[in-house]
Amino acid sequence: MRTNNATETIPVYIKGTDKVLQAEPAPGNHLNSLKREIIDAARAAIQNASTLAIETIADLMQNSENDICRLNAAKEILTMAGITKAQFIGSDSVEVLRKEREQRALWDI
Description:
By secondary structure, this protein is mostly helical. It has helices at about 25-65, 65-80, 95-109; strands at about 10-15, 20-25. It has a two-stranded antiparallel sheet with strand order 1-2. Helix 1 (about 25-65) packs across helix 2 (about 65-80). The longest helix has about 35 residues, at about 25-65. The radius of gyration is 32 Å and the shape is elongated. The protein starts with 8 loop residues before the first strand and ends with a helix.
């Protein structure tokens, strides 16, 4: 006798027969159900707290009187958005950059 996980039962047979005397609830089902409820409640609480955290950081970025605090809040928001420090490609040397430009010009001809 099987039903879905939330109401799964274990059959109790009459000794020596195939007849079911009674069906007892499976011992882990209630605990699994409670565990799922706790996890769902925790997930909802974390989502609510993360929204408040982002709003707090945005408020600090806009309204703080401390420049360092505003700067750090702005950096944190950019990091959360996936925007990170620029990664330079190529050289910082003007001479090397000119040679690279000349090479590209030759390929374009």
